[in-house]
């Protein structure tokens, strides 16, 4: 370091000031895929709460009443295991797709990427292409600049607020939520989450953008652990491209001792994270493939073959595997193990959902009195049964008790009628002839069976005290 360097120079060398990135618009195959994924994901997100299923909201996570509706499926807090299974399946799917083709999730379906694309589209419509936006940044404050920037922010805020409203609509019935907003009767929690989610969307997609991918997202840090030499990644073919340099279209680049890279820098201009893919794979790369579309267009104008930047593997670049065989290498031990585990998890998840019994039974003994003798001379124990009907329709149940010969049930009217998606707590007395009791404590079992479907049966164990 220069001996004349000041502490301020040292500080500036250690801390890089963020430079605002204005990605250049690009067209091509991968750009069309990104647009398709934006439309698909937002159709699911914005349209999901408005779908109706059997006279109710099709997708609703009703935290107040602790019921989670997903079309015809109704889940309860006791079904939390299914959420755990879904998260594990999602993790293995992420491992599998990352091992095969890198950060596909980041480039095409991550909410950060999707909303950044939406906000960038608005920015381009209001302020113009990359060149005009850069010029607007440098321009002094003027009425035109205020109007353009103000219009951009108003549109961003509208999108962000609608996004927050839709998000809360998955937890509070969205039609009721709309009515509360229209009548100025919105509750404090709904107001907080709408504004909080809107602010997060506006800040992340409008301002932070690539900073979220670079510094906040943990996936960027451990993705390399899931890569191997056969993983398809966005990469620059240095053997073809180097040495790079400018030239006219009619120049024989071989005779000039150049590679096919014309050093136009467009691959950097279209990158949403501002990296130069020609420096090799970097953790900031989100595999959006915008640089591939841009480079292919330049190659077409120069009459050079496409693929200077392409999705390929390290083994292909090093000549270990032929380009035509790169897709065959998807079926390798690592991906086969991931796929096998994923299929087993999905199979177990579906089987658990199919075999899920739509009724629950919990039995609680009355601990105030261990047992008592009735006027008929019978030994009686008192229980409280909690019956949960998890079906969106009323149901009738028969109840019996096993484990003690001659045991009878009192204070309960059979068949039990439990309303749709309802939980009933019922007092039940179990009376037994003293001569049938051989031990101080006997294990008994309450069995609940649906009258319309004997296959819907659930049981719960308890203890009977009598000597």
Oligomer: single chain
Backbone CA Rg: 32 Å
Largest sheet: 5 strands, antiparallel
Strand content: 15-25%
- Low-confidence parts lasting 5 or more residues at pLDDT below 50? none
Helical content (DSSP H or I, runs of 4+): 40-55%
The rounded distance between the terminal residues' Cα atoms is 91 Å
> Total domains, how many?
3
Question: What structural category do the secondary elements indicate?
Answer: alpha+beta
The total beta strand count reads: 16
What distinguishing features does this structure have?
467 residues, 3 domains, alpha+beta, elongated, Immunoglobulin-like, 16 strands, 4-stranded antiparallel beta sheet, 5-stranded antiparallel beta sheet
Explain this structure to me?
With 467 residues, the protein is α+β, with helices and mostly antiparallel strands. It has three domains: 15-224, no CATH class; 232-322, no CATH class; 359-465, Immunoglobulin-like (Sandwich), CATH 2.60.40.10. Helix content is 42%, strand content 19%. The chain has helices at 7-14, 29-47, 80-101, 104-108, 111-127, 130-138, 143-169, 174-182, 188-208, 210-216, 219-222, 238-241, 266-269, 290-302, 314-317, 333-355, and strands at 52-53, 56-57, 59-62, 67-70, 73-75, 233-236, 309-312, 359-365, 372-373, 379-389, 395-402, 408-410, 416-418, 423-432, 441-450, 453-465. Strands 8, 9, 10, 12 and 14 form a five-stranded antiparallel beta sheet that branches. The radius of gyration is 32 Å and the shape is elongated. The N and C termini lie far apart (91 Å).
């Amino acid at each position: 370091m220069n001996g004349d360097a000041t502490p301020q120079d040292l500080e500036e060398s250690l801390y890089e000031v963020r430079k605002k990135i204005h990605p250049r618009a690009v067209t091509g195959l991968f750009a069309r895929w990104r647009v398709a994924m934006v439309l698909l994901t937002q159709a699911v997100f914005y349209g999901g709460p408005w779908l109706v299923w059997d006279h109710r909201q099709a997708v609703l996570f009703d935290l107040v009443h602790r019921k989670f509706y997903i079309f015809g499926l109704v889940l309860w807090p006791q079904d939390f295991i299914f959420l755990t299974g879904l998260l594990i399946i999602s993790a293995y799917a992420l491992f599998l797709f990352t091992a095969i083709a890198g950060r596909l999730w980041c480039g095409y379906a991550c909410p950060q990427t999707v909303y950044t694309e939406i906000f960038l589209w608005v920015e381009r419509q209001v302020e113009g292409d990359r060149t005009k936006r850069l010029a607007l940044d440098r321009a002094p404050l003027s009425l035109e600049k205020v109007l353009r920037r103000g219009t951009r922010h108003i549109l961003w805020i509208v999108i962000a607020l609608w996004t927050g409203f839709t998000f809360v609509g998955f937890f509070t019935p969205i039609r009721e939520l709309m009515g509360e907003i229209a009548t100025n009767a919105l509750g404090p929690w709904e107001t907080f989450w709408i504004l909080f989610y809107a602010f997060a969307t506006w800040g992340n997609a409008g301002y932070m953008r690539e900073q979220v991918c670079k510094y906040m997202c943990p996936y960027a840090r451990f993705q390399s652990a899931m890569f191997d030499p056969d993983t398809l990644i966005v990469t620059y073919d240095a053997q073809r491209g180097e040495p790079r340099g400018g030239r006219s279209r009619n120049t024989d680049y071989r005779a000039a001792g150049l590679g096919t890279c014309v050093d136009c820098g467009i691959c950097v201009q279209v990158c949403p994270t501002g990296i130069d893919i020609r420096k090799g794979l970097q953790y900031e790369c989100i595999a959006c493939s915008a640089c591939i579309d841009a480079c292919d267009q330049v190659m077409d104008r120069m009459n050079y073959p496409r693929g200077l930047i392409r999705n390929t593997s390290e083994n292909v670049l090093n000549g270990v595997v032929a380009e035509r065989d790169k897709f065959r290498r998807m079926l390798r031990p690592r991906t086969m193990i991931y796929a096998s585990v994923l299929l087993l998890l999905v199979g177990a998840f579906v089987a658990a959902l199919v075999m899920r019994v739509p009724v629950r039974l919990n039995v609680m003994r009355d601990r105030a009195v261990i047992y008592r003798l009735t006027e008929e001379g019978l030994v009686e124990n008192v229980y409280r049964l909690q019956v949960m009907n998890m079906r969106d329709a009323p149901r009738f149940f028969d109840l019996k008790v096993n484990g003690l010969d001659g045991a009878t049930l009192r204070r309960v009217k059979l068949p039990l009628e439990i309303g749709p998606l309802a939980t009933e707590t019922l007092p039940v007395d179990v009376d037994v002839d003293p001569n049938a009791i051989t031990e101080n404590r006997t294990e008994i079992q309450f069995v609940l069976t649906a009258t319309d479907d004997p296959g819907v049966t659930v049981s719960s164990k308890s203890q009977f005290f009598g000597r």
